[in-house]
Every structure is written in C-alpha cells, then in structure tokens.
Inverse folding.
C-alpha cells in the first residue's frame, strides 16, 4: 500500500514564530491553524482556568477588530473558525476560501499583537461569566458531567499539571485580576511560543510574504517559564474506585487507566486495542454487553493522548434499566482482561487498522485537519514531519505488541472505576471513594 506523503516547508521568523506551509490545490480553500504552546498544564496553583479563559477572550476584540467581530468577519468572507484548549496547548483556526487567506492571517496577527489594547475589566468579567456558565452546562448540570474531573483526580496526583480539567477552578477565575490575565497573555501569547500551519490552495511565497508582513514585527516573550517535572509511573499502584450518586436515570460504569505518552509506540497499540474493544457494533464490548448479554445501552473506549507524564485510557458502559451496575462492571472488566491475557486475532487487528487507516486518510484530505496535525507535531515534538509517520506506526503494530501494551496498561493495579448511580437509588449518599494503594 502506498502511504500518502505530505510535503511542507518549515521555517522560523526572526521573532521566533514557526511557520509550516503545505500546498494542496485540490479545492479552492485554505486553512490557518495557530498553536500556542500553553494549556492547562502550564497553569499554577491558584490560577487555573486561564488557558481556557483565553480561548474565549481571544474573540473579544483587538486594536482593529471590535468585540465578537472576528467571528463575524470570517463568516462574512465565507469561512469558518473556532478555538480549542487542551492540557498541552491552545489553538485557533480558520478555514477560508483561498482568496480570503490574507484576511485570516491579518486577523490572527492583530489579536496576537494587540489584544491587550481591547482587554478591559468589562470584557474579562463578561467572559469569566461565560466560562462559569459553560462549566454549569457541560459539567455541573450535565448527566455524568463530573466524570472527567473525577477521573483526572484519580489518575494524577494532587498538584500534577494534568490533575485539573482545562476549564479550571471557578474560585481561581473569580479571584483573577485584570493584571493577572494581562500577565498570562504577555507570557504565552507571543510569536516565539506559537506555531502557524497554513495548508491548502495557496502560493507558498505569497504566504511567507504575508506572514512576515503581519507577524514579523511582533515582539517575542522573554520569560516563558519551564514546565515542572511531569514524570509519573505508568501504573497507579492500586485499583481505585468511587461511587457517585448523580441526577441520572441510568447507572453508568466508567473505567480509566494511565497510558504511555503521545509518541510512545505502546499508545498506538492501545488505540488499536480500544477499537477492538469498542470500535463499532462489531467490537468485543458491543457484541458482549449490548447485543449478547443485553446488560448495557452503549459502550465506549478511547485514549486521550498527553505529551508528558502519562496519557489517559478511558472507557464506559451505560447500564440497562433493571441491571445491577456490578454485573456490568464485572463483564466489562472481564472482556478487557481477556484482551489483556489472550492474543487478539489477526482479523481483529486488521479490522482495527482498517478503521484507523480510513480515519487518518480522511484527515489528510481535509486542509483543516492537516494544518492541525502539522502544528501539533511541531509544537509538542519539534518535528512537523512526524505527520508522515503516523499511519506507518499504527500499521506496524502486530498482535504481540498489542498484547504486551494491553498487559501493561490494563493491569488491575492501574484501574480507576467510577460508578454513577441514580440519586433515588443511592438514598442521598454522598460520593464514596475507595482506594487500594
């Protein structure tokens, strides 16, 4: 099989901005994706949630763009845009008709260079309330909404950079002053802390000229602090469980494990293992829990890659009405254990690889996905060329490597179980945590 190869250029401006360009003239569109090397792992105690807050603040105007006008300008030009925050980074992206690419570059440069000119106390207070409402909607008032926060608290020790969710502490956000937020922006939102990937129906030399013109005079940051030590053992050292009464109609069993970091070959094997376990209706967990035993409504298993310390491998099964959650947990863990101790069949592995190959080839054909991947590998591993190695690394996994990775990760001493039960059946009991450490 011929694996597609992405051709790109990679350079730095004098102020440190890294520019990665890939031409793709298949369709008349262009994608801009800028990754700032700042996420929730860069936050310090008492000041959590700042990275995610800026995902909102960055749309509140700059010297030449009014409040919320960034979105309106992009949409009026026929484009789409957004921003996201994760442990390891914050990114902002636009996909535009290719003749509107210069506009997207100017917009990104204007807010990188002049956002503080528009960052008022009113804007900060407004976006602080937006984030608090997002937490209420996505975490506090969402069925099973606290599972990720609870999972992080179990998988990572207190104070570890990954131990709190990206949305942060509402108390910390309430306490944040305008000076705190301005300092955060000056530290991290600088050209020498950013990678810009531009992909699509573009002229490389024209892109270089525009980027030098709009970004070249922006000042770099001189005081980006180093990350703390993030190293962790790859196992927890004991099974941990928590029962959580919640306002839900059906019980749900969540499981979580520490996993190797991004770039580790074992994580590629575990992603394929996750697809064998829960990748569609032909997967082991769906066949056993949903179709055969009919004890679960749905199942899932997925890795969440992290660049330092340890990644996350998470799964869940929603319990059917009238079924004991303990029975679902036992069957779920039995199937995971079976994969851990018995080699998967070659047919299962080939199916998982085919699913992965389909998804990755589709991503390579979308300019926005390719721009995101190039920026990711450049930011986290200093090598955008790693985009060309990813499919090969999945295809290189054999049954022995998969079983070895599963045997290590799916150890019972590396297991967190969070069981959500309806409050009505829990008698109002508070969340109960047990640990065998």
């Amino acid at each position: 099989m011929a694996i597609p190869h992405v051709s790109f250029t990679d350079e730095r401006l004098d102020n440190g901005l890294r520019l990665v360009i890939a031409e793709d003239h298949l369709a008349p569109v262009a994608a801009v994706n800028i990754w700032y090397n700042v996420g929730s792992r860069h936050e310090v105690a008492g000041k959590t949630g700042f990275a995610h807050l800026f995902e909102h603040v960055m749309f509140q105007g700059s010297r030449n763009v009014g409040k919320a006008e960034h979105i309106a300008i992009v949409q009026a030009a026929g484009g789409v845009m957004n921003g996201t925050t994760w442990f390891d980074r914050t990114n902002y992206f636009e996909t535009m008709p290719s003749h509107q690419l210069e506009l997207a570059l100017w917009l990104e440069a204007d807010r990188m260079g002049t956002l503080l000119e528009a960052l008022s106390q009113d804007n900060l207070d407004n976006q602080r309330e937006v984030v608090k409402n997002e937490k209420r909607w996505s975490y506090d008032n969402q069925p099973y909404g606290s599972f990720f926060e609870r999972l992080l608290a179990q998988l990572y020790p207190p104070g570890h950079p990954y131990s709190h969710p990206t949305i942060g502490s509402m108390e910390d956000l309430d306490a944040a002053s305008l000076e705190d937020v301005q300092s955060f922006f000056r530290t991290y939102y600088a050209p020498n802390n950013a990678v810009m990937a531009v992909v699509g129906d573009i002229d490389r030399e024209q892109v270089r000229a525009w980027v030098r013109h709009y970004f070249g005079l922006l000042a770099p940051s001189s005081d980006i602090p180093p990350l703390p030590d993030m190293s962790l053992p790859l196992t927890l050292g004991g099974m941990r469980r928590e029962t959580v009464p919640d306002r839900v109609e059906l019980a749900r069993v969540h499981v979580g494990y520490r996993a190797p970091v991004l770039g580790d070959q074992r994580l590629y094997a575990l992603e394929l293992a996750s697809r064998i376990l829960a990748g569609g209706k032909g997967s082991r967990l769906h066949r056993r829990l949903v179709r055969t035993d009919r004890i679960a409504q749905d199942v899932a298993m997925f890795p969440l890659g992290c660049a330092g310390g340890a990644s996350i491998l998470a799964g869940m099964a929603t319990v059917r009405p009238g079924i004991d959650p303990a029975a679902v947990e036992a069957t779920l863990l039995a199937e995971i254990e079976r994969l851990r101790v018995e080699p998967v069949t070659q047919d299962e592995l080939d199916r998982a690889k085919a699913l992965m190959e389909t998804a990755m080839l589709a991503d390579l054909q979308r300019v926005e996905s390719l721009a995101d991947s190039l920026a990711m590998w450049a930011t986290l591993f200093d090598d955008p060329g790693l985009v060309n190695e990813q499919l090969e690394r999945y295809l290189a996994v054999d049954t022995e490597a998969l079983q070895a990775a599963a045997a290590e990760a799916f150890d019972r001493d590396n297991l967190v179980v969070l069981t959500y039960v309806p409050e009505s059946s829990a008698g109002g009991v508070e969340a109960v945590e047990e640990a065998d450490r």
